[in-house]
Design brief:
The complex is a heterotrimer. In chain A, β10 and β11 form a beta hairpin. Chain A is globular. Chain A has 2 domains: 221 residues, Glutamine Phosphoribosylpyrophosphate, subunit 1, domain 1 (4-Layer Sandwich), CATH 3.60.20.10; 67 residues, Alpha-Beta Plaits, CATH 3.30.70. By secondary structure, chain A is an alpha+beta fold. In chain A, α5 crosses α6 and α6 crosses α7. Chain A has 7 helices and 15 strands. Chain B is α/β, with parallel strands linked by helices. Chain B is 10% helix and 25% strand. In chain B, strands 1-2-3-4-5-6-7-8-9-11-10 form an 11-stranded mixed sheet, with helices on one face. Chain C has one domain: Alpha-Beta Barrel (TIM Barrel), CATH 3.20.20. The longest helix of chain C has 25 residues. The N and C termini of chain C lie far apart (54 Å). Classes of the chains: A alpha+beta, B alpha/beta, C alpha/beta. At the B-C interface, α1 of B face α4 and α6 of C. Chain A: InterPro entries: GATase_2_dom (IPR017932), Ntn_hydrolases_N (IPR029055).
Chain lengths: 296, 231, 440
Amino acid sequence: MCGIVGLHLRDPELYPQLGQLLESMLCGVVERGPDSAGVAVYGDTRRVPDGHAAVSVLLPAGTTPEALKDALAGLAPVVTPAGDTTLVAAPTGVDALVAAVRTAFPAATVIGSGRDLAVYKGTGHPRALAETYDLAGARGWQGLAHTRMATESAVTPEGCHPFSVGPDQCLVHNGSFSNHATIRRDLVREGVTFDSANDSEVGARFVASRLAQGEDLEKALLALRETFDGFYTLLVTSADGFAVVRDPIACKPAVIAETDAWVAMASEFRALASLPGIDAARLYEPEPGKVYAWTR
Amino acid sequence: MDAVAPETVTFDLAETGGVRALNAELHRPSAKSYAVENPAGAHAIAAGIDADIAVEVRGHAGYYCAGMNDGGTVTVHGNAGTGVAENMMSGSVRVRGDASQSAGATAHGGLLVVEGSASMRCGISMKGVDIVVGGSVGSMSAFMAQAGRLVICGDAGDGLGDSIYEARLYVRGRVGSLGADCVEKEMRDEHRTELAELLAEAGLHHDPAEFRRYGSGRSLYHFTSEHSASY
Amino acid sequence: MTSPAARGLRESATFDRATIAGIQHAARTGVYDIRGWGAKRAVPHFDDLLFLGASMSRYPLEGYRERCDTDVVLGDRHARFPLHLQTPVTIAGMSFGALSAQAKEALGRGASEVGTSTTTGDGGMTDEERGQSKHLVYQYLPSRYGMNPAHLRAADAIEVVLGQGAKPGGGGMLLGQKISDRVAEMRTLPPGIDQRSACRHPDWTGPDDLAIKIGELREITDWEKPVYVKVGATRTYYDVKLAVAAGADVVVVDGMQGGTAATQEVFIEHVGIPTLAAIPQAVQALQELGLHRKVQLIVSGGIRTGADVAKAMALGADAVAIGTAALVALGDNDPQYAAEYEAIGSAAGYYDDFQDGRDPAGITTQDPELAARLDPVEGGRRLANYLRVLTMEAQTIARACGKAHVLHLEPEDLVALTIEAAAMARVPLAGTSWIPGVTR
């Protein structure tokens, strides 16, 4: 149970303000999820320079970002710690960087990877975490954030959203799936591995496995709708876009706002209230069971 | 922005005190007329009014705006979040924009007007309120509606009036589908008359002849296994 | 005639006579069995726990002389006016509709006499119960029948009901026999119909939205009243954490033995967990949040004696609520009506057809003639007597364990008679230091 915000910028003039805008949005959903918070930023070249791959990592206890940097020295990485998360960027391929991190620290949890994406997760008060992540300083073309009120799994960095389990993909969830254990078992049988006991991770792994089979985001989310029981508002982002879907009963809230300059989605309007041009935005609620998608 | 009469007391929610100070004042009003600036989606704005006072909310409201209103006249110059005018007893609430889920939920009396559209579960479990929606309503509207009247000038989503009791529904546009035990009923003169009155009260100008009427088939009033699919 | 057993006939353990009767009923009517009361099956319960009275290592308190308090404060986390009760035994929510107006009044009279609270139910607040209840908790339910802001303000506390131990996840029912004109009017329903209540609230779902709903209720009542959240016992550890996260001042956990006025038998017997298993989960959740004894825990479902009260409190509850036992105290299942119980196909001590409205004791009915059998003053006196006995019994045990307040009882004062009870209650098996699942 949680608060969700996402912002997809259409106007490049706003790219330098992405982090500031996202932070203001995050503050509007703090009360929905006071346990922990996660953030994903797309296109911040100071965090993920052009030609680099990036991996976000939760390091196991007793290891340090410096040790990771030393272990990856051959790849000339830039290693930036931010609370529980350590961001590693290096001029190499995504798969190569993920493999190198896993080889160096098998007990580390990879919480995000891509050519354009920086993911941060941690436990604590969302406002304090936004500062830890220097969210206000982020720039880029798209981002999302999530505040968590844990339901049936532990309050840990691994259990936070977003779940980023495929390259440049993220999923955040408000609600609760009620048949996730069975779907998890099915995915495990297919060889999928999990990082947390969180029901939302099952949704993310399900979508990632569909995307890996070549489906587009919309098709994958329609498949999710047919497979998952329970209540959900989902925001899913990828290397080129942004999608929102609610379950057919649609009890969990969602508001979408659109202007020529941006598309924004949040659990509640109060998270959108301070966006520039909000007074003239087209405001609407996504209909139950329908997939809304935007691409760059 | 409308002109503010001098006797109107203005609360700016961006300043300290917020909703709590506003509601404390509205529960023991020292004026007849209030304006609320910078609502910014805050929750429970003007909830629990128990007096004949007017409140103008200048912007978008969050959840439960004018919740349990009993006698107040509340206008939202913007959109309203979940459960606007929920459990209203009397008075009137007008939303100039759209309303989110569960508008007028369980309300016993008074008039709720949504000039725009209302999303899912509009009038859920309504118990005597009159609701007039200028636009459309989402799915499962008037679910378990017990009493009162719901007027929809646009379209209704799926499952309209599911498990309805004695509420009366009027729809001008298309109905996605009717819920269990909700049936179309004959539009007689008395219905055209009450509909015309409701539209006039809401300030909307539609011909009552363009509406269809729906209500309970009363087949779920006594539990039998033949209806098990509807339970 | 000799009994079947004496004639050497063998009853099936799987298809016993009650099961056979159930199949026959289903085949005959095509409708599942709806009844009142709570779970009747045997489950690990307080009877499987024993107290370690003081002896040499600990000193008992002298009964009647040395102080052992029983008062409790409920809801002092956010509310301006928390409840201060003289006994930790409260009366659980039961609706006017399920019960007669006289029964509701009697509950109010009995509870007020001993300084404890009573609770409305799914049907609104009656003048009789408000008038006779010193401390009245107003339930806020999915149906919102009779929900009224004036009553919200007239209440001493608000209980947001998510579920009931008899049917977690299910909505309420009230069959047509009990929808009298007055009940129908209070619920805005046509008289005589079979009423169904929703299983979810109409305008919020989940703890994040419950937090906003609780905020609204506090705004409407000017932050004066404690807000309780009641859940049926299932995933209690998580539910209690989330209730607290949503802002509850008090959490009420109702175990599967908790009663109902009318619910599907399959629900009553097969959904939910025993009260004994729920308490340690709830207490663990509160302790992990650092809020045990700060957000109070009320436990219900199968409380019958002062020993049950003391055991629930030793496991960590701040108070208990009684429902079925209170009805019995008023006169439910009284042997004086034995012939009448037989005449409607039941027996004194077995009667659970609360849905039917033909209660010979005049409690679970809306029939004016039957309801008139219960004198609210006399019923109130009987309930007050019973509440005093429960309180004194709990106090007796607390003194024997050397406690100056019943709230000072602790899990270490308890041992279990069975491995099941030891595992559920997380106390050692008697005579050992073994807590299954906790110690080796």
